[in-house]
Structures are given as structure tokens and as C-alpha cells.
Amino acid sequence: MTVIASELNSNILSPRDVAGYKSDPKQPLFKRLAEFLQWAAVKHPKKISPWNVATKAVMGYDRTPSMTFKEVAHLRSTSSRARLFLMDKYQRDVVCIVGVGVRASAGDEDTYKTGMVKRARVLDRAALGVERTAAIIDIKNLSPESRAGMSIILGVCKGLPALRERLMLSAGKASDAGKKP
Amino acid sequence: MNALPKATMTLDDLKLDYATASTEQQKALVCRQAWDLVLSGPHEKVEARDWLAKEFPDLGPYQHELRLIVLNNPNASVLWDRIDGPEKMLVGTACSLLRKARKQGKSLTEVLAEYDMLPWKHLADGTKFRCASAGRHSQKKVAPATLAAPRTKLSAAHAGWSKFRAFGEQFMNELLEGMVLTDADRAALQERLDVVMSQAQAEMKLAVKRLREHSNLVKGTREVASRSKVVAACRSLAIDPPKPGQPADLDQARKQKRRLARAFHPDTNDGVTDLGGYQTTLAAYDTLEEYNQTLNPRAS
């Protein structure tokens, strides 16, 4: 298949796209990453920034580093702190695509589809795990202290099926759409 | 020597004297008076030159200074005779002769004798002077017009075309054998033959070009995908581009293709109609595969 070079890079940020971005070197790394993701979400919404391109923009390098460059791995490790900062300051979530790159969510609809559904599914799986674990424990064999804690958990577990049902109802359709094949 | 002008101290009088002066020496005297007038006034020495140039527009650049140099020399009467005489020596030439005499420690007469030995040079505006070397005033030597040497050997394409045309003419003459044609008809036929043969030649060239391309394809020497295409494809797949001349990492590219295709597939995006990202991913992988195949055809 013949591909014209200019037709490529439609959904991936290229180094040329981030050439105009200037980061503040006085800020800590996670804040710089968050500011870059915010800029990219405004300038190139829903475009994924590969980690090496993000490193180039955040660090202010002239050339694009390799994917195996240690600074790229270091920047990747700051994404969780950047997520919190981005949520607090700009009300955006960080969308990571494993092995590809990262982007900030663009709008509430995007946040719901990419972040909320995934976390609801995680909560559902966690609730299921709590139910299954509680089912194999005999409360009569527990010490008095543990029995007190277990009774509290069992009280919570009574409401879990209803919670799971609501989660599946609210995010079921969307989660099916976003489910991995 | 001509009579010197009377000393006048007003600008209008000086201008009038300058306009009516018939010799260079008289003009030089007026210039000196004007210079004294300027220096006696509020003008500085630097401004005085501009003032003189403004008040006496026909005064050429540095003409005023050159005249004063000659005028202030006590032995310059010989030079004034030459300047205002039939020789019409340039004031600049007189200055250079004075400078030469001073530098070489010779008398002005000796320098003038040497000067008279030099050949004349004529300029385009009619002025003439004596000059030893050709210098910048000499006329440019024009190379004699020479014809290009006749081409002893025709290029291969030209020779081929000549043979082709000769063959066409021979063929046409065989066809026209026994017919009586006027010169106009024959010229028209010749013109028509040229058109047909040039078309045939163009088609033949195109056919050969296609044959050569096909031959290269068979041999596996087709054109390598450009570097920019490969780099763009790697950027699309979020992998590092290979070094020039090295094959791309297809295993990594395949993994990235699957990840990105999953991310951009319409089924995972509520059936969005924009297939740009998905198709770009597939096309980028195809580009890298084609690039690797081009580098090493046997590997595929």
C-alpha cells in the first residue's frame, strides 16, 4: 500500500506538532508533564503523545529521544502524580495507552468513556472479589477481634450485589464497548 | 598666463566670477576665495566642502581640493599652461605629477619629460591622458570571434535519431518511387514524416522505460521507500525509526499495530465513522513491511 508521509500521524502527535511548546524548567517534572498534557489536549485534542515525544516537549530537548532513553522511563513514572495535578487544576483525566503513549481527556464525555467506565469495572471486580473472599471465611473460627471486623465487612457485602448491579447498569453498555477483545 | 579675477568677498560675486571664468586657473582662484569665505564664516571645515559642493554644483568630487593643490604649488605654472592649453591636461593628472615629483625627489620638468614619453589613452567621453600601464582605463580586449569546433562525434541518442530518420526517408522514397511530386508536396510529406517519426520515437522511449522498470522489479532493485516515509510510519506506530539502511523492527511494529488498531478501531469507539487513525496504523505497518522487503527481498 502506498502511503504519503503527510497522511500519516493523524492520531499520534509527532515531534513537529510539539515544536511550539515551551515548558517551564523551574517546575517539578510531574507538573511539567501535566501542563504539557493540558496544552496538547487544547491544541491537539484526543491525539496520543508517545512518551518520547512528551519527553522532548517536557524536557525541552532539540531532538526526539529514543523510546529506551532513561529520561523517557523517568517521565512515565511521574504520570500518576501528573494525573492528580491535572484532575485538581484542569479537571482532566490522564489516558494511558499501554506501549503507545499518553494523553489528557478532552471533555466530560471523553473522561466518562475512557476513565470512568474503566474504574467502574475495577470497582465491580473488586466488589466481586470481596464477596468471594467473604464466602469462604467461617466467622465462627475467627478471633473476637477479627470477628468484629468481619461482621462489619459482611454488613457492607450485603449491599454489594445491588452496587454491582447498578454499576453494570450504568457502565455496562459503555464498558462492553471499551472492553478488550 | 591669463589675468586673475579680482578678489570679491560676496557669494553672488564669486558665483558670477566662477560662471564667467574661462580657464581652469581662474576657476581655481575663485574656488580658493570661496574656500576662504567659508572658513571665515560660521562653517566648520567639514561642512565647508558640502557647502561648496552645494553652491557650485558643477564642481566635481574632490575637484576643488585638486585645484587648490596645484594652485598652492609655486612651480605649477607649467602645469597650468598644460591644463588650460591645447593639451587639456586633467587637474588630477597634474596633481599626480606633482606627487610623483615630490616622492621621487625629481624636478617637475623631469617628471613632465617622462610623462611626455607615455602613450595617449582616450576615454569614451573625449578626454585623453597619458598612461603607462593599461590599468582600468584601457579598453577591454575583445577575444577574436571564434567558431565552436565542429562536433566530430554525435551523441548516441542524436545518432540514433539520425539513423531512424534516414530509414524513414528511405522508406518514404521507396513508396513514392515513380510518382511525380512538386517541391511543396514533397516538403509537406517530409514535415508529416517528421511528426510521425517523432511520435514513434517518444512511444518507443516510453516502452523501453516501462520495460526497464519491470526488469528492475523482477531483479528486486526497485526504488527503496524514502526515509521520510519510513520515519513517518514509525512515528505513527510510536516506535523508534530504524537507522538508515537498517531494517525496521517488525515484531515491535506488529505489537504496536495491534495496540493502536484496538485503540482506533470503530468498534471500540462507538462506531465512529472517522477511520483515519485505524487506516493510518495499518498503512504505516504496510510501509515498514514494504521497506524491509525492499532491503532484503529474500527475507520475505
3D structure, described in words:
The complex is a heterodimer of chains A (181) and B (300). The longest helix of chain A has 35 residues, at 144-178. Chain A has six helices and three strands, in the order αβαααββαα. Chain A has helices spanning 29-43, 51-59, 70-77, 79-90, 108-135, 144-178, and strands spanning 49-50, 94-97, 101-104. The model of chain A is unreliable at 1-9 and 174-181 (pLDDT under 50). Chain B is 61% helix and 2% strand. In chain B, helix 2 (24-40) crosses helix 3, helix 2 crosses helix 4 (63-72) and helix 11 (250-264) runs antiparallel to helix 12 (276-295). Chain B folds into three domains: 11-130, no CATH class; 156-219; 227-299, no CATH class. In chain B, strands 1-2 form a two-stranded antiparallel ribbon. Chain A binds chain B through residues 1, 3-12, 14-15, 48, 50, 52, 66-68, 97-101, 113, 177-178, 180-181, and chain B through 226, 228-229, 231-233, 235-240, 255-256, 259-260, 262-264, 267-270, 276-277, 280, 282-284, 286-287, 290.
| Shape assignment of chain A | elongated
Q: Please identify the structural class of chain B as seen in this structure.
A: mainly alpha
Strand fraction band of chain B?
A: under 5%
Output mean pLDDT of chain B.
75
Class computed from helices, strands and strand pairing of chain A: mainly alpha
Poorly predicted sequence stretches spanning 5 or more consecutive residues of chain A: 1-9, 174-181
Helix content of chain A: 55-70%
Major sheet of chain A, described briefly?
A: 3 strands, antiparallel
Shape of chain B: elongated
